[in-house]
Design brief:
The protein is of the alpha+beta class and 165 residues long. The protein has helices at residues 16-32, 36-52, 98-112, 127-135; strands at 7-9, 59-65, 68-78, 81-89, 117-123, 139-146, 153-161. It has a single domain, classed as Aminopeptidase (3-Layer(aba) Sandwich).
C-alpha cells in the first residue's frame, strides 16, 4: 500500500462527520481506553464545526480506499490562525506516508490562505502524532491535567508559526 493508492477528497459530504465521530470513538476506546465522554466531545465539536463550516476558509481531507473512509483531517479557520483537528487513520493505513501527505497538504492550505499560525490539541499518549507534528515545526506550548475522556491524562496544545521556520 502506498499513499497514492488512497483517494483524498476535499469536499464534505453527508455522512462524513458521523463516520469521523465513529472512528474516533472506536479507535480511541480500543487503543487508549477513552470512554464515551471522548466520543461526546468529538460529536459536540463536529456539530460546531459543521454549523460554522466555510469551504472558502476551512478544509477537509477525506481519505478513501476501496469505497470507504479510512482517514480524515480538518483545518478549521480561527481568525488569524487555523486549528488542525480530527486527524485520524484506521490502524492498517498508518505508516505508509499518508500522515506526511496530509501534513504537506495542511501546510499548503495555510499558505494558500496566507495564514502563518496553527494550533492543535492532543494528549500526552499520542507519541506518533506528536512526533509528526514536531517534524513540521509544531511546538508544545501548554499542558493541563484532564479526566475529560474518562481517564487521567495530560492534554497538550501545540502551536506552529510558519514565520519561525
Amino acid at each position: 500500500m502506498k499513499p497514492d493508492d488512497v483517494h483524498i477528497r476535499t469536499t464534505l459530504l453527508p455522512g462524513d462527520l458521523g463516520y469521523v465521530a465513529y472512528l474516533h470513538g472506536k479507535i480511541y476506546a480500543e487503543e487508549c481506553s477513552y470512554g464515551p465522554n471522548f466520543e461526546g466531545y468529538v460529536l459536540e465539536s463536529l456539530g460546531e464545526f459543521l454549523h460554522q463550516y466555510d469551504p472558502a476558509k476551512d478544509r477537509v481531507w477525506i481519505c478513501e480506499h476501496e469505497g470507504g473512509m479510512i482517514g480524515f483531517l480538518a483545518g478549521v479557520h480561527r481568525g488569524d490562525s487555523v486549528q488542525l483537528r480530527y486527524f485520524i487513520f484506521l490502524p492498517e493505513y498508518r505508516g505508509i506516508g499518508l500522515g506526511k501527505k496530509l501534513m504537506d497538504s495542511f501546510i499548503a492550505y495555510m499558505k494558500e490562505l496566507s495564514i502563518t499560525k496553527a494550533y492543535l490539541w492532543t494528549t500526552n499518549e499520542q507519541h506518533t502524532a506528536t512526533a509528526l507534528y514536531a517534524r513540521y515545526g509544531f511546538k508544545l506550548t501548554e499542558e493541563k491535567p484532564s479526566t475529560a475522556f474518562d481517564k487521567p491524562l495530560i492534554e497538550q496544545r501545540y502551536e506552529l508559526d510558519l514565520n519561525e521556520q
